[in-house]
Specification:
The complex is a heterodimer of chains A (115) and B (112). Chain A is 0% helix and 54% strand. Chain A has no helices and 11 strands. Chain A is globular and about 40 Å long. Helices cover 0% and strands 48% of the residues of chain B. In chain B, a hairpin with a 2-residue loop joins strand 7 and strand 8. The termini of chain B are far apart. The chains are: A mainly beta (115), B mainly beta (112).
Chain lengths: 115, 112
């Protein structure tokens, strides 16, 4: 059974940091592009970042460039999103999703940025 | 960024009847390799998105054949031949021809 399990979501103050993790199982993780996508009721679904299977190519949406860092560990079947200088508009449910021969999504983890 | 515009945003349908969702992109989604990088997703209440159609018209494994995708260039359509109760939810188109990948606003399929 394929699983993507995110963790790390929390309530954090503006300017703070948070690290999201996603652990995969049930598919060939090292062959998949891994992505972070966030969702809010107001803005809908928004792509945040992705990383290629080798981990040496990364893309970020402009609004998180310089603040978020995506990385992966193929030996541990995991991908992380380090989020720094958090702002209120980063508040969202964050999904990790795998793109390859198939498409897989985690259940999401809630990040709330508020004082 | 490429803007994806869906219509309608709300779609009340009768069970057993067909349904159609339109998605228009602000730029062409055709790559130099000839493929069109447009996917369709379904999000049922309380669930994560699930991909139904990839690269314009290819159904994902396990997706019923009542779902079909079509279109070209900047104009795309998701069709459900006969709506079933399990189809209720929100449907999104998404382009990945250009970075950042972008989603439509979503179309809420409601059962009449």
């Amino acid at each position: 059974e394929v699983q993507l399990v995110e963790s790390g979501g929390d309530l954090v103050q503006p300017g703070g940091s948070l690290r999201l993790s996603c652990v995969a199982s049930g598919f060939t993780f090292s062959s998949y592009w891994m992505n972070w996508v966030r969702q809010t009721p107001k803005k809908g679904l928004e792509w945040v970042a992705n990383i290629n299977p080798a981990g040496n190519a990364k893309l970020y949406v402009d609004s998180v460039k310089g603040r978020f860092i995506v990385s992966r560990d193929n030996a541990k079947n995991s991908v992380t999103l380090q989020m720094n200088s958090l702002r209120a508009d980063d508040t969202a449910v964050y999904y990790c999703a795998g793109w390859g021969d198939s498409n897989y999504w985690g259940q999401g983890t809630l990040v709330t940025v508020s004082s | 960024d490429v803007v994806m515009t869906q219509s309608p945003l709300s779609l009340p349908v009768t069970l057993g009847q067909p349904a159609s969702i339109s998605c228009k992109s602000s730029q062409s989604l055709v790559h130099t390799d000839g493929k069109t990088y447009l996917d369709w997703f379904q999000q049922r209440p309380g669930q994560s998105p699930r991909r139904l159609i990839y690269r314009l018209s290819n159904r994902d494994s396990g997706v019923p054949d009542r779902f079909s995708g079509s279109g070209s260039g900047t104009d795309f359509t998701l069709k459900i031949s006969r709506v079933e109760a399990e189809d209720l939810g929100v449907y999104y188109c998404m382009q990945y021809r250009h970075w950042p990948h972008t989603f439509g606003q979503g179309t809420k399929l409601e059962i009449k």
